[in-house]
Amino acid sequence: MRVLPLLGAFALISPAAAQAAAPAPAAALSPDLAQVQAHLRAVTTMTADFTQTDRNGATLTGTLQIKKPGRVRFQYQKGVPLLVVGDGKALIMIDYQVKQVSRWPIGNTPLALLLDPNKDIARYARIVPSGDPETLLVTGQDAKHREYGSITVAFRRSAGAPGGLQLDGWTVLDAQNNRTTVRLSNQRFNSPVDDSAFRWNDPRPVGPHH
Length: 210
Fold this sequence. Notes:
By secondary structure, this protein is mainly beta.
């Protein structure tokens, strides 16, 4: 399924395992990681355009909406019958072509770092070298299950953005070493986002509608 690599990132890391594997308590936050945490806590809503590129160079585009805590919507370009919504509890992928709905608990995904301002980032992630003083890279991986893959999130220093950082996107490396990159543009922070953005229509013949 075309969107699955994006979702694969979200299912990579168990927070319980990551917490057990991470030796650094919150007090040991590096200045850069502390800045990332400050940014995440300062952002209540975010909207952006996104471009998703898979290992073969195939590209999909769409729009992203985030409203904390726990709500997100990936609306793909016209003609792509897929929708990804976080409703505050679950991350839901809807494939309208085959009328299939899949769910993951948001709290069991690295996406929780972006959607829950109360998460202790030191227990999930670490700073890695970016080669660019204007870019901060934060990577997360389950140290006990490296076969699950990893996710690396990119932040760019921006004086006008919350906490002085702007979320620029992320890269996923799955268990088969397949790389998927999501890049953001036209980011807007802390503007009103209506709750209706996180509702969705259930395409299954029998079942609740949202």
